[in-house]
């Protein structure tokens, strides 16, 4: 939106508030790379765009004392109209428009390295600076313009750059004026680290302004001692003393030396190149045991290089709880037993979505996972079948536990399938038992950890264990309402392989309302209470049921009827039989003798 036009300065209102993007997105090298790619493509048909300057590079200079970072490229630059459209409006991508123009004109071949898509990358420059200034000059125009805005402002300024000292022949120069508390971001080594982390494989050279040092020999003048001055004059003239001095200076240093060798034909890459790439990319000083470079085409296209390192990871929990960044994109989808594999994956078909969850659930990612796992197995198989047995012994010594874990997880898949079948078969029985027990248990589940016991009573996630329950009961607490609540958090786990549970499963299907079967469920629960360390709710009632079980075992029947069972419960709770011992006085005992 245009506001005013006074002299050479035009002030505009931003189309969207940049403050919405500031907390989420630094150093937009990708924008500079796109500008260089556009110029390289257009220069094929318009060589006059290059003029006398044919070098295509990116240069970053810092001033830590003043908190200034300057990023300059020799790319296509922008005209005044392009500045208004591309820099001043969020979600207006100049690269996306360029790609669309290529498609409309049926020109292709130069778009594979272009990065921009959404029109928000430039606004990452506002993450740390308080003011951003862009000086740009297009080879199609004789004028150089300056775009300037502050992070907390809703407007921007466009003016013509009239300072000859700041003129550039072509391209753009981005100047970031950092906040006072964030001047540390302008440290040369910190900028170098950022470039290596996020722009290591940009196809154009990136230079940073770094302090360097070198040593040189300088002459040292020494006065000889007075006594020997006349004698040493001739020797001093022929032989002068020197010392080593360290000189410091500033110069440009190439940061992205490592080239993306995965883009080359595997037949044209030597083993030394793979090893050197591995050392620089993964910061390892040892050469890898094996590598696999492949290109997948068809349904999904991607390039990848897999490495097996020579040494086991240093982290103790690397295998069980992998937090590795060896395969940054697929680490959550790669099997745990392959967490030691180091991998580079290049793909143009990943869905461009900010949500990591949507990306990981993508069908493309699942396909890539399967192919990467297959290639990893092939690579390990190649190590095992190689003539050099020492390599395989080294591999097994370092990563044998990972392979054992893989075998366990492979077999576990069949066990989980069996457990799933059991849960489906005994699901109705679990619901039936839960209905009978009511609030005494939180749930009834099928367990695969029981061997000889028909069931076990376990504490829930937020419930009390048996020991904790005994400790709480031992306290002199007036309000016992929490006891009943915690008792209801227990979980009854049943063993589907036990004959008792199998019999209950059949009874659930044939006679679910049979009184004797329901009483058997009660006895099963109370027995599980006792065997699991909990205190039975009514020891007398439990004893009566055990007597009935003994009666069934001895006489071949369950015992008394339901009415007699109720009567027995009352008698057991109220009657306490006692046996009085006969007391014999000593005198009486003597007379009896």
UniProtKB/TrEMBL annotation:
Pfam families: HSP90 (PF00183). Keywords: ATP-binding, Chaperone, Nucleotide-binding, Stress response. CDD domains: HATPase_Hsp90-like. Gene3D superfamilies: 3.30.230.80, Heat shock protein 90, C-terminal domain (1.20.120.790), Histidine kinase-like ATPase, C-terminal domain (3.30.565.10). The keyword Ion transport does not apply. ATP binds at residues 31, 73, 78, 93-94, 117-122, 356. The keyword Magnesium does not apply. One of its GO terms (molecular function) is ATP binding. Belongs to the heat shock protein 90 family. This is Heat shock protein 90-6, mitochondrial. It comes from Salvia divinorum.
